[in-house]
Design goal:
Length: about 210
């Protein structure tokens, strides 16, 4: 197994080899060297590393991203689900939502979209990812005839835009007046109710969560 360094408190740090592997895999993915990225991930996952910070789960996510990019959606789906076993990240749920939506799997897409909303929130530094999720899920809900729920997501997105004044908020959204009067706390509570209702309806899709 990989040799560990430890902090003054005795907690293990990731080794230089593990850190290099994570940087290398991410760089290969970002430069679209998908086969090389998969090999890098496989070599690390099969080497018996003692991973830190859920790095093994993120390597599976990188592999899933590679498979998704080359159109192998079933393999991508499998990698994302494996990653969810140890890491219930909203980022992974969002990837599964987009994958299922693209494949036309409505129930699964709604389920994973709701799981993304209810997962541990994105940190403030990831407001751009939160905006993307609310907008994409709103568009999908609207396609399914769930217009009011779509508007609720867009209303919440506007709160985030307001907190990031350098970002340009959409001007073509039509949102009911009763939603426009809600503050961020109110929209958060209503969104939670919305997501839980979807999960209750499609509970059979709770694999890998």
């Amino acid at each position: 197994s990989i040799e560990e360094n430890k902090s003054a408190e005795g907690k293990p740090y990731a080794s230089d080899r593990e850190l290099w592997t994570m940087r290398q895999a991410k760089a290969l993915l970002e430069t679209k060297q998908y086969e090389e990225c998969q090999m890098c991930c496989d070599n690390a996952l099969n080497a018996g590393f003692q991973f830190h910070n859920n790095d093994d789960a993120w390597l599976r996510v990188y592999k899933g991203d590679c498979f998704s990019a080359i159109g192998q959606t079933e393999l991508a789906r499998s990698m994302y689900r494996e990653a969810l076993i140890d890491l219930q990240s909203p980022i992974i749920y969002q990837k599964l939502f987009l994958l299922e939506a693209k494949d036309g799997n409505t129930e699964q897409a709604l389920f994973f979209g709701a799981r993304c909303g209810l997962a541990a929130p994105f940190v403030p530094e990831q407001d751009d990812k939160r905006i993307r999720f609310y907008r994409e899920f709103a568009d999908y809900l609207e396609l399914q005839g769930m217009e009011y729920d779509a508007c609720l997501h867009r209303r919440h997105a506007l709160h985030i835009y307001k907190e990031n004044p350098d970002w340009k908020a959409p001007t073509n959204w039509t949102i009911p007046e009763d939603l426009m009067t809600l503050n961020r706390w109110d929209t958060s509570r209503r969104l939670e109710t919305c997501w839980n209702k979807i999960l209750d309806q499609y509970a059979e899709w709770q694999y890998g969560t």
